[in-house]
Amino acid sequence: MTSTITLDGFDLVWARLDARSTDQDARATPVAPPPHTDHWLVHADGRRDPLPVRRWHGPPEPAITSIAARCSGPTIDLGCGPGRLTRALAQQGLVALGVDISAEAVRLTQGRGVVALRRDIFEPLPGEGRWVHALLVDGNIGIGGDPIRLLRRCGALIAADGTLVVEVEPPGAGLWQGQAYVLSGTSAEGARQGPTFRWARVGAEAVAGVAATAGLRVAHTFRLGSRWFAELVTA
């Protein structure tokens, strides 16, 4: 069963989709069970990052509000997770679409009263080549483990004068590609390891080279608190 919603000329198709595998869900922003449990993203090189699940499930924090304020037209939020950024965009009166491969992420985003689509971002998406802005935040530059392929795909989503805002690692992180998995649990109950998936990290000093190979260029980088971002445009 499908229905079509038209937002400023963007035809967004809602569909009842069949369940997908856990392996596919792992390619999206990791969306964990209820936020009272601790979660980490464990990289094959030994790095272990805490996943801020409570933050994802909460209201937009100042950095997210600032990112939303930079947007001035139809915006696609890639790897939207529970949808706090998609919601912040819609609250500004913008056409906003959240995209995630996780059914739970899409359900939570729709529960915030905004439009979300369950889709692999490498599959066809509404409005390709017409989005004024595309967003990859909360580590989503890592999706698929191949930042060049990912940025090239994102470049195809935005208009010729559009922008792609990417959250990157602080300077000095370099470029890393490999396997990762989500570890969930508490010290009392023991940790549970999820399936492995391909992931990547890109530092602020490395994003220009990655972007150039993908046919984009860095317009500028900026910092919001302890977090770093790069705004990319068509080369």
Describe this structure in words.
The chain is α/β, with parallel strands linked by helices. The protein has a single domain (19-234), classed as Rossmann fold (3-Layer(aba) Sandwich), CATH 3.40.50. The chain has seven helices and 14 strands. The protein has helices at residues 22-25, 53-57, 62-69, 84-91, 103-111, 147-157, 207-213; strands at residues 2-7, 10-15, 38-43, 48-50, 75-78, 96-100, 116-118, 131-136, 158-168, 175-186, 190-193, 197-202, 216-224, 227-234. β6, α5 and β7 form a beta-alpha-beta unit. α3 (62-69) crosses α4. It starts with a strand and ends with a strand. Mean pLDDT is 87; it is low at 1-8, 11-28 and 30-35.
Write the layout of secondary structure elements.
Elements: E1 2-7, E2 10-15, H1 22-25, E3 38-43, E4 48-50, H2 53-57, H3 62-69, E5 75-78, H4 84-91, E6 96-100, H5 103-111, E7 116-118, E8 131-136, H6 147-157, E9 158-168, E10 175-186, E11 190-193, E12 197-202, H7 207-213, E13 216-224, E14 227-234
Parallel strand pairs: 5-6, 5-8, 6-7, 8-9
Antiparallel strand pairs: 1-2, 3-4, 3-10, 9-14, 10-11, 10-12, 13-14
